Amino acid sequence: MEHNNYDIAVLLATYNGGKYIREQLDSLFQQSCKQFHLYVRDDGSSDDTMKIVGQFREMHPDRVTILKDSQKHRGAAKSFMYLLENVDSEYYMFCDQDDIWLPEKIEKTFARMKEVEGTAPVLVATDLRVVDEQLSPIKESFNEDLKIDVFRKHPELICVRHVVTGCTMMFNHAAKQASLPMSPRATMHDEWVALCVHFKGGVISILDDSTILYRQHTSNTLGAEQARKGFFARAIARAGQKQFFQVAKLLHKDFGLSYLKFLMYKILYSWF
Question: What gap in Å lies between CA 66 and CA 30, rounded to an integer?
Fold first, then answer.
């Protein structure tokens, strides 16, 4: 177990990210808040990803740790959860390899965390600015697509819609404890952590500030385009049908939500 001497552990899962990762690491070490340590787990990259990470470790030897893992190709979700399991810290942030963090991302998120934190699990997330491969703007606010205003009025929306984006999250140690171990029925690390906080009496607080350039490119299969698709467009797709049953089973088996209530939420919130 790696113990973090700073307040915040930034958890970076990498895989063949050499094309963009230098920009991401530059943005990370240009943050206005310096109270973080970077922990990296690579999933078996064959490009220069880890060479670039190593260069940053040489520049910041007391701020970068590379976690060794004999198992390769865990995939993104299990890579992030491996980092979470093996790092001990007060607060945690997931970091994707291909985005850019705006200079006050950590500072603003940490400030909100301190405002709302008590003894319960707490998760703070922010808005994102969607950009293309060359960082040209596509959409100023991703939260509009995520229906965050609906979520604030109806928190149960989280049962049927992905309302928290992992690369914007900060969560406390209580939220980590509530989220481990990850269910074998869970498919994404950020969705799992958010559901655990929601169902285990925690607090999810969303900042309206866009604190990240959320890069969309050909390798980004989970990007903003999926969130913009309506419920019925997703439902008639084969992948959408598979996800429907996966989520229904997850919520029922792990959190006790009845299949009937899940279906009711799905129908109700498809109109927003």
Answer: 20
Mean per-residue pLDDT over the chain, rounded: 92
Each as own residue / partner, the long-range contacts of residues 82-85 (CB below 8 Å, 24 or more positions apart, any chain) are: 82/41, 83/11, 83/12, 83/13, 83/39, 83/41, 84/11, 84/176, 84/179, 84/180, 84/189, 85/180, 85/181
Residue 164 CA to residue 126 CA, distance in Å, equals 8
The token pair that represents 198 in the structure block: 């929601």
Residue 88 DSSP symbol: E
* Among 261, 225, 266, CA closest to 243: 266
**How is the chain split into domains, by residue range?**
2-221
C-alpha count within 13 angstroms, C-beta hemisphere, residue 15? 14
Asked if 28 contacts 103 with a C-beta cutoff of 8 angstroms, the reply is no
Q: Which pair of tokens denotes residue 256?
A: 């006790």
The string of pLDDT tens digits covering residues 73-115 is 999 999 999 999 999 999 999 999 999 999 999 999 999 999 9
The DSSP 8-state label assigned to residue 48 in this structure reads S
Q: Map tokens 């995520």 to a residue.
A: 146
Which homologous superfamily is 2-221 in?
Answer: Spore Coat Polysaccharide Biosynthesis Protein SpsA; Chain A (3.90.550.10)
